[in-house]
Request: fold
Amino acid sequence: MTRPFYVTTPIYYVNARPHLGHAYTTIVADVATRFHAMLGENVFFLTGTDEHGDKVVRAAKKENMTPRVYVDTISRLFRDLWPELGVNNSAFIRTTDPDHMAVVEQVLQKIYDAGDIYFAEYEGQYCFGCERFYTDRELVDGKCPDHETEPETIKESNYFFKMSRYQDWLIEHIRSNPDFIRPERYKNEALAFLNEPLEDLCISRPKARLKWGITLPFDSNYVTYVWFDALLNYVSALGYPDGERYQTYWPVVQHIVAKDILKPHGIYWPIMLKAAGIPIYRHLNVHGYWNVEQSKMSKSLGNVVEPLELKNIYGLDAFRFFLIRDMTFGLDSNFSEAALIQRINSDLANDLGNLFSRVLSMVHKYRQGIVPEVEAAVEKECELGLEADARDAIAEYEKLMTSFQFHNALRAVWKFISRMNKYVDVTAPWELAKKKSSRKPLDVVLYNLLEGLRIISGLVYPVMPDTAAKMQKHLGQNPKSLFYLIEHLKIWKALKPGTELPKSIVLFPRVEPGSKKTDTVAKTETSGLPSDSKPEITIEQFSAVDLRVATVVQAEAIPRAKKVLKLEVDLGHKRIVVAGIAEQYTPEELIGKQVIVVANLKPAKLMGIVSNGMLVAAVDESGPTLATLDKPVKNGTPLR
Ligand code: ME8
Reply:
């Protein structure tokens, strides 16, 4: 039987329009789903909207709408956005769906009957933005840490859920299932909450104060309060308790949320499940915040970035790639359009796009666009380990994608792309094309490059489905076929010799910095830098420069070039760098020296040699003086 996979996003509040933060979580869920489809699994992906509560009533009032009309309007914005962002969700749940409301009533009654819900008076500090009470300890300078507003003191009689009863069970559950909450920092955060006595959870609101909710089945003067309604969407959408989908998918569920709702998902939800006799979810995957200028992007702070605007300017796949590649899943990331442009130009236009058009152009130039035959006799000598590298890349990618390390999975793909680019440089097909005797080696080289591209097209599929399909088409494959299945990618030499390929296209046009801009990105103010310095840059722009420690292992003069030396440097792997330091250093004195290399500089041909990087030096009237370190460091160590 096919293995099931079930992933959920939070259901988003309908008190404002969707922004980049919502887009990120939902695209991550889409990427995870597409990846599991690559594994041949039976996937189900749920997203939706959270539509009850004071917040929504207040937002509706502001717009002069009834809550009903208001939630329909905003929920539609979310629902319609997802296909625009290439998101292929299996279902869209709304907490105002009658089926969902019936499940909430049923579960409430079950827990009430079991004696885990009681009635009591409560007075506390209430944040309307979060729709929850805060303890004094949780407030920062007396304010809600998320909304930066002072909470109001509220006193009322309500129903409470006896969470305290399950505290020890939950601690034990988290400890004995190390991957239950991941990455680890959030597991530790959840355990830290549980170090303190757990307060019982208020689950109701008197109808006198709030009508827009689900009436408690055991007291019609009350409606249920936000989390008890919202969290149950994950089971109600599957037809809990008897639905076939519930039987199939619930046992494998994985939730995705940002750290703002770690507590409800990491603490309230497993306890609710336990109390209701529902099996506990498998994994809670928690990511960080997209910040703008170090503040969380949120509707209440008014600094939101519009996902559609970015998609329209930069293209869907480039936008999706940026989100997944730039954020380390679990950590915060600062959004900047400059970083987005940098990614498009370097990773997409340069690395992937150039490789693709270079290879296809050569197949057209040297073989009239026909996939060449590979002759076994020359295959081995021309292969140079490319097949093994492709297999390693697939294995690494699979491991990282499965464990929600999407950014690292893309790094593994880009490592292979860079390997392919090196393969082009080393085999130099244009040289092979000059000699009649090299006909067969050239066939093998071109075939291997096409095969590598086929694998890359599959690996980028979850993040960039349109690009994957375009690449497939140009590799003579039917994009509608299941080309992305990982089993298929693992077959080396799947391309059929003799296939005619369409002419190459530009996959990702370069973006000139400053040529396009959204209105949503804040401008940085200029500082008082000295007038001879370069323009101010952001930390992201600086971190785009990959500086690495390297040791010079070989150095030699280049005939007829008085100023430059050809160096072989070791930065974890070896590469050639051409440096203009021959008048200041002899080859002998350089060997064994540790230097700093700009490792991600676009390769350039100097004196007929391709230089892969640049040495960092102080340059004055006497010429360059190499920058070194004051004690030995492992080769490849990055500088920050
Ligand atoms: O909390 N960076 O809804 P919500 C990254 N209805 N992700 C962000 C983000 C940011 N700056 N801002 C929002 C709710 N998100 C409840 C959930 S679930 C049963 C009920 C994303 O509209 C992220 O996924 O406030 C975060 O957890 C979620 O939106 C919060 O959405």
